[in-house]
């Protein structure tokens, strides 16, 4: 038997009032500490929404790849990918974004909400070049709110615990996943061999 929550009053009654400190940590601009977390992060998840639905996309590079232009502006290179551009399509239709930053070894995460525009200015893109390869565009994110998330989720998941790491050969390969999803039209062992050779050469 289910007991769905259908309105805000019922939801708030179920969970109760948030702790004062959970409200106090949310601010409209970067503090020095929040800036340090972003500059130390090599990875974040970008959440967007558009006519085709929702998207959560992983973004990663060396620490500092997300540049802090000022306390309310982030610059993020759109590194080479598969050209689906799901996030960018969504941003064109709805500029609202959510970012979740992770720092290896740190159990707290950082959450940023705001709006984004896609900037393809050549000079801006060249400033993010790696190995002579510039991104095709840079996301300019205007921060509306920023706050840290407590450590519970990462502690429960043991994300950084070496003993909790899963052996890659214990799970399906990317070639297998692709073959299953495409009913055998794509993927397989040949895909795995090509991917292993190409990925290191096509990061940028």
TrEMBL record:
Database matches in SUPFAM superfamilies: FMN-binding split barrel
Name of the protein: Pyridoxamine 5'-phosphate oxidase family protein
Segments passing through the bilayer: none
Any Pfam family the entry gives: PNPOx_N
Top-level lineage group: Bacteria
Native species: Azospirillum endophyticum
Domain Pyridoxamine 5'-phosphate oxidase N-terminal: 31-150
């Amino acid at each position: 038997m289910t007991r769905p929550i259908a309105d805000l009053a019922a939801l708030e009654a179920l969970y109760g009032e948030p702790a004062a400190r959970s409200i106090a940590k949310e601010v409209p601009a970067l503090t020095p500490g929040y800036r340090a977390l972003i500059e130390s992060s090599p990875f974040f998840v970008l959440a967007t929404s558009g006519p085709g639905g929702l998207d959560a996309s992983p973004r990663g590079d060396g620490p500092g790849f997300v540049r802090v232009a000022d306390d309310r502006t982030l610059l993020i290179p759109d590194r080479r990918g598969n050209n689906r551009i799901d996030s960018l399509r969504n941003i064109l239709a709805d500029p609202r974004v959510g970012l979740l930053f992770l720092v290896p070894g740190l159990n707290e995460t950082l959450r940023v909400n705001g709006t984004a525009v896609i900037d393809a200015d050549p000079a801006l893109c060249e400033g993010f070049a790696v190995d002579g390869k510039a991104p095709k565009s840079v996301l300019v994110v205007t921060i509306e709110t920023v706050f840290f998330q407590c450590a519970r989720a990462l502690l429960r998941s043991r994300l950084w615990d070496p003993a909790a790491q899963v052996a890659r050969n214990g799970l399906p390969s990317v070639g297998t996943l692709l073959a299953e999803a495409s009913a055998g039209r794509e993927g397989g062992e040949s895909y795995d061999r090509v991917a292993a050779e190409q990925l290191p050469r096509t990061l940028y």
